[in-house]
């Protein structure tokens, strides 16, 4: 028996991106795009004739979803009635007493594992046993999976869980990776870590199908493939509509304002700039007389990027030695000396020095 399978999770439907750096309009667009990508995952199940859709937790956001959203999810799962949808609820879509999961009757093809203890779902027609568990609270420090072992090696055995196999002291269902490797499962589908990664050929974090912020750069998508008793072939499939991309540009004091704009325009090809979300970090030394107003730069560049935000980490090209020598007997010289004593290797001290210099020098000019 060969099982066609899609493994996803950490979709976070309903997320409002309240802590994101982009504005409310962009946040709402991104929220809708999560639904769009979820719909494409359903379509992909139809396209490949998936036997199983594994959802490794954080399907939706407890805090933001409504019963209308939950019914919408259910209706989409009902579109793939020939696919068994198996869910392990995570820390953002918990299966507690007041869980949104409990507000509706799910389609016959949907199975949601109970919380706090590992249970099994027998799929006789597929000669398969899927093991899993859900969360019923936001934190889980117990090692609920460690020690689990396959019982019947004549069947395909799959483990589905939302937890942390990368940190031994995690508060998010810590999992011992080495024990997993020796547990005998044909495939282990994990969620919680938003970057896709294979811990072994048959143990995988699916990652989030859509990146959620600038902490989630790189490719995002789903895990797709085939599972059989003696051969598992699951692989990453890029699926995200957009990427979060961070670019650093190093400038010097000889580059003027318009040149900075021109350089930013060339950081990527037009196709990518028109599709993805960019954070540009300016570093290096700038002409001390140039004021880099990041909001103005964004306005100049808005027609060249789908979305762009700019961080200015440049420092003015002050000649500290010269300024100190010329002002050693006044407050300016004393300020430079004090900052040097605190250590200019410290970024906070360095920033304070340049902000202070700018203020003191401007006062000196006024006089």
Automatic annotation (TrEMBL):
InterPro entries reported for this sequence: Calcineurin-like_PHP (IPR004843), DNA_Repair-Maintenance_Comp (IPR050535), Metallo-depent_PP-like (IPR029052), Mre11_N (IPR041796)
Stored SUPFAM superfamilies: Metallo-dependent phosphatases
UniProtKB keywords: Exonuclease, Hydrolase, Nuclease
Record keyword Nuclease present: yes
Pfam families: Metallophos (PF00149)
Keyword tRNA-binding: no
Molecular function GO terms recorded: exonuclease activity
Domain of life, per lineage: Bacteria
Positions of the Calcineurin-like phosphoesterase domain: 4-195
The protein, known as: DNA repair exonuclease SbcCD nuclease subunit
